[in-house]
């Protein structure tokens, strides 16, 4: 009788047959959900669940690079998460910093931190900013995977920040509010988002079985395809990713038309 690993390998090869390069999403957003519930299910502490989730990230990025994805945005900490008890938040922030540093150590990754750093403890914000700057300074590697790490991120907060930044830019040009309102465009707001300069996500994946965005990339995901996976993030497998990509490949993308 075939063992489970052999069966999975056969199934993965079958899934790969449907994934031609033109059907691979350029930008994949991922809501890394379920770390706490995974830990509770096996009777361990929350921090252990977050560490196991962090350990999954580089593995996932390897799959994405292998399949030709160009941009990945990982939602690691929401603005709502910042209200968690200090005894949970402090170790979570430490785990996130370590995970981001590990991702940035790979010269095949170009790491950018997206979110409001002013909401984070000053030491954490400084560490994350330094990690991103160091990643940008690494020697050029052809086809580096752009990795957006969303920390202290909320979709409404991002749009508010974008509008605030845009209004300030208008004021610096000596424009009144009425003049600004007359020339304001969708592209103007897009140009002030945390992800400015990057393509909008083609596919958004959420793990843990929850079927909502919870504020993830609200502006950018207007034409995205969504895929909800039952597996908790620490249990997310390559075959789960391939299923998501196959599902995406089968969809007819109308892009609002």
Structure in words:
The chain has helices spanning 4-16, 35-41, 46-67, 86-105, 122-137, 155-172, 177-183, 186-190, 238-250, and strands at residues 27-31, 71-78, 109-114, 145-153, 203-206, 225-228. The longest helix is centred in the first third of the chain and has 22 residues, at 46-67. It contains nine helices and six strands; from the N terminus they run αβααβαβαβαααββα. The chain has a domain at 26-66 and 89-98 and 107-153 and 202-210: Undecaprenyl pyrophosphate synthetase, CATH 3.40.1180.
Number of helices: 9
Q: Fraction of residues in helices?
A: 40-55%
Number of strands: 6
Radius of gyration: 19 Å
CATH class of one domain: Alpha Beta
Second-tier CATH architecture of one domain: 3-Layer(aba) Sandwich
Order of strands, main sheet, comes to: 3-4-2-1-5-6
C-alpha termini separation: 50 Å
Task: Give the overall average pLDDT.
Answer: 93
Strand content: 5-15%
What are the secondary-structure elements, in order, as H or E?
HEHHEHEHEHHHEEH
For this entry, what is the oligomeric state of its chains? Answer: single chain
List low-pLDDT spans: none
Looking at CATH, the homologous superfamily of one domain is Decaprenyl diphosphate synthase-like
Please write out the topology.
Blueprint: H1 4-16, E1 27-31, H2 35-41, H3 46-67, E2 71-78, H4 86-105, E3 109-114, H5 122-137, E4 145-153, H6 155-172, H7 177-183, H8 186-190, E5 203-206, E6 225-228, H9 238-250
Parallel strand pairs: 1-2, 1-5, 2-4, 3-4, 5-6
Helix pairs in contact: 1-9, 2-3, 3-4, 4-5
């Amino acid at each position: 009788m075939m063992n489970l690993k052999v069966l999975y390998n056969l199934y993965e090869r079958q899934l790969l047959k449907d994934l031609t390069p033109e059907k691979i999403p350029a930008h994949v957003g991922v809501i890394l959900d379920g770390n706490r519930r995974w830990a509770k299910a096996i009777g361990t502490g929350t921090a252990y669940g977050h560490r196991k989730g962090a350990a999954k990230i580089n593995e996932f990025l390897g799959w994405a690079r292998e399949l030709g994805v160009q941009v990945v945005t990982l939602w690691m900490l929401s603005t709502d998460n910042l209200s968690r008890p200090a005894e949970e938040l402090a170790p979570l922030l430490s785990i996130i910093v370590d995970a981001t540093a590990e991702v940035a150590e790979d010269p095949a990754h170009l790491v950018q931190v997206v979110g409001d750093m002013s909401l984070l403890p000053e030491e954490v914000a400084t560490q994350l900013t330094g990690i991103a700057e160091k990643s940008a300074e690494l020697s050029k590697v052809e086809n580096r995977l752009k990795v957006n790490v969303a920390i202290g991120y909320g979709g409404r907060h991002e749009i508010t920040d974008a509008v605030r930044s845009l209004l300030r830019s208008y004021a610096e040009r000596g424009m009144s509010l009425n003049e600004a309102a007359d020339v304001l465009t969708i592209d103007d707001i897009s140009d002030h988002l945390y992800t400015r300069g990057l393509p909008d996500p083609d596919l958004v994946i959420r793990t843990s079985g929850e079927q909502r965005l919870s504020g993830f990339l609200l502006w950018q995901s207007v034409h995205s395809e969504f895929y909800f996976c039952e597996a908790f993030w620490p249990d997310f497998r390559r075959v789960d990713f391939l299923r998501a990509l196959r599902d995406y490949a089968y969809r007819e993308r109308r892009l609002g038309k």
